[in-house]
Structure formats: structure tokens, C-alpha cells
Specification:
522 residues; 4-stranded antiparallel sheet; two-stranded antiparallel sheet; 25 helices; 6 strands
Length: 522
Amino acid sequence: MSTEAAAVDSAGGPVVKEKKKRKKKLSFPTAFTILFVLTIIAVIATWFVPAGQYAKLQYVADSNVLTVTSPQGELSEVPATQDQLDQLGVQIDIEQFTGGSITKAISIPGTYEQLQAQPKGIADVTQAMVSGTIDGVDIMVFILVLGGLIGVVNATGAFESGLMALTKKTKGHEFLLVFLVALLMVLGGTSCGLEEEAVAFYPILVPVFLALGYDSIVCVGAIFLAGSMGTTFSTINPFSVVIASNAAGINFMEGFEWRVGGCIVGASYLYWYCKKIKANPEASYTYEDREHFAQLFSVERGETAAAHAEGFSLRKKAILVLFIAAFVLMVYGVMNLHWWFPQMAAMFLAISIIIMFISGTDEKTVVNAFINGASSLVGVSLIIGLARGINLIMEEGLISDTLLFWSSNAVQGMAGPAFILIMMLLFFLLGFVVPSSSGLAVLAMPIMAPLADTVGIDRYSIVCAYQWGQYAMLYLAPTGLVLATLTMLDMKYSKWFKFVWPIVVFTLVFGGILLCAQVMLA
């Protein structure tokens, strides 16, 4: 007889022991699973959403003509003149095309046609994932080279030594560094749309923030959230407000004063969170993952024994100066030299090679450090490619323009605050379908902006509705940069959502109030 069966209580009766049921802890799916499911949903949508397309207009600088692509795909050329644009119903200054402000194809108002359905099948799920990865190869190579550079600098020990020196200097003023980083990202977002390039900052700033006593949420908040807040309230960002204003046929300075007010709110929210977890570390939304996260971003792991023994030498200081200079050059190149990911990747590679030569470490060690660093970001780069595959499915299935057509019809007949608020919510939904700010601008603005004329409001209100609606979605949308960022930091989406949803609500509410004020004053 077993011990359990023989057990009796004090009254002589048997004791019945209940087996404790283990509660199964629900785990949030990985980024790859989320994107896979969304790809399947996009394929299914091509079977139910009617196919259709607007005619597209694009300027060809070499021959100084405008090409018109009909919904059926027929190509024709027309003179690049203002009269021709007026005949097409495109209320944009011709100089916006000839001067290079608008380079992508834009939608021509009133040309939407329903086309034969182009439903996708099971085979297109994996095909889109591969095609999206190929389409995003430029940013993927940039991320891999960035990982290689991080690996080389880490192997020299410059990170560890510099981090210790920085921690001593900032003791008692920890939030100052967080604030300065957030301010830089807000300025970068509002001026040049510093978003995709921001992935470069995580590997160097995450160990710093951890050493200052903050958590992974602060790392994402100071970089992704702050940069996105700047882009949400863009002032002179050429990839957002400028191209949207051009496509709307207005000067981008119209409505400037309305877009300045919200930039400081992200930093204020970040300050509140930083103060909260400093007072009580257990208040962190990612407290349960703190040990795993700290180990993941430990700068000591890649450091060689020789580098550790060397201390914070002049050589390490020179390496850190070169490393920081790479990011200064990146920002300068994007803003002034029109660099894109191939140029940034080439520059990062050049800096990596220079550091290899001055590191004093043998060739095999630094090359392996570069390879290991690059391999650590393979998952992140693949996420970006897979997200683009979802957009390819909707474009090839000819349903993106249909969703835009439905959106424009939804606001017709409305007026006043109701019109502009519904417009912002439509851009919120379209932000999931088209997560590219410049892509949505050239696709939607020529269609949506003229609707403002019909209800007697200024077109810059449509531009503001586009910015605040789309970017409220981009804080959350798996089709954007969120999953790539969270994958890089090995953070759960549920934790990020808990932190960012107040900013989403603020953007929509605060943006809605500003839009209503614009309409009332129009």
C-alpha cells in the first residue's frame, strides 16, 4: 500500500491529497509566426476583396515626360506640363515632379477600375516571404554589416571599458543620458525620418541603459518610441510630411505650427516610466525577463582576455571614437548626401576594417568576431524581409488600391469634425496595409487631399490626419519595424504593447483634438 493511501488524519479518517494542477503559461507567438499568419491572412483577403487599381502617374527625368499606366497596365506618355496635370485632375505643381520632390508613381484621382480577381494560393505564401526578403536586401545587408561592426568592437573590449567609465560619470544623473538619446531621436525623426536607421543604435545603447539601471522597455522607448514620436509630428521630414504635402499640392510649411506641439510628449512619458522603475525595479513591464536580457546584451561575452587585461587604453578610446563617428557620418550622409542603406553599409564596413587593423588582435579573432556579430542579427534582418512579403501579396493581388477606394468613399458626404476624424481613422487602418510613410503618401494623398476642397477645409489637415493616423498604427503594426526591433532585443510583443498603448491613444486623441481645431478655424 502506498504512503498516500495509508495516510490518516488525526480523527482516523483517510487524508485525500489533491494533485496540484500545473497552470500552463500562455506564451506569445514569435515574430516569425505572427508574420507567417499575417501572410496567410493576406492571401485569403485576395479571394474576398475585389481586385482594382488606380491609374498611376510618374515623371521620367531622362525624357522629360510623364508616363501614365492605366489600371489594365497599358503605358502611355504625355508632356510634362501643368496643363497636362490639370487635364488629368492631378492638382499638384509640375515643379514637384520636375524638381525631384516626387519620384514615385502617384495615384490619379477618379481612375479607379475594378479588375479581374488575382487570388493568391498556398504556394504564394512562401513565395511572398522569399520575394519580400529579396526586396528588402538593402536594409538586411546594412543590419548584417552593423552586427559585424558591433562584434569587432566588442572583441576589442572598448565597449566594456567605455561603459564602466560612462557609468561612473553619470552616477546620479542617469536619466540625462536617456533624455539626450531620446532628444536626438526625436530631432532625427522630425527632420529626416530616422526610423529604419535607428536599428543601428540598439546594440551600443542597450548595454549602457542596462548599466544605468533601466530595463529593455527604456531601451526601445528612448530609440524607437522617441524616433517615431518625432516622425509622427514631422516638421521637415522629406519622407513623410514633405512628400505628403507635395502629393497633396501644398507647401509642406502649411500646418507647421500644428505639428510641433506633440514632440515633447514622448519624452515626458518616458521620464515617467524611468522614474517609476528607478523607484521600484519590480514595476518594470519586463522584470521577469531581466536576467535573460542582461545576459543577452552583456558586453563582456565577446571580449578577449587580452583586451580585458589592457584596461581603458588609448587604443580602446580611439576605437570608440571611430565607432561613434560611424553613426555621426550615417546621420550626415542621410541628411545631406542622400545616402541609403548600401552607402551606409559600405561606410560601416570601412570603419570595421579600420578597427580590425588598429585593434592589435590577430586576424582570425577579429574576422570571427565580425562573422559572429553579423550572424546574431540574421533573425532581425529576415523579419524585415518577411514583413515586406505581406505588402507584396496585397499589391500583386490588386487589393491595396481597392482598400484606398473604399476609404475615400467612406468619407464622402461628411463634413466638419466628423470628416477629418474619420479620415484620421482611415489612415490608421491604411497604416497597417501600407506601413511605408512615403508609400502611403504617394498612394493616398492625390486621392484624399482633393476631398478637403469639397468640404471647405485646408488640405494640410489631410496631411496631418495622414501623419497622426498612420503613425499611431506604426507603433503597433507587425508589418512595420516593431517586430524587427523587438526581435533584436528578444522582447515579447505583449510587453511592448503594455507600454506603448497609452502613446497610441494619446496620438489619436491629441491628434483628433488638433484636427477638429483646424477644421473649426478653417
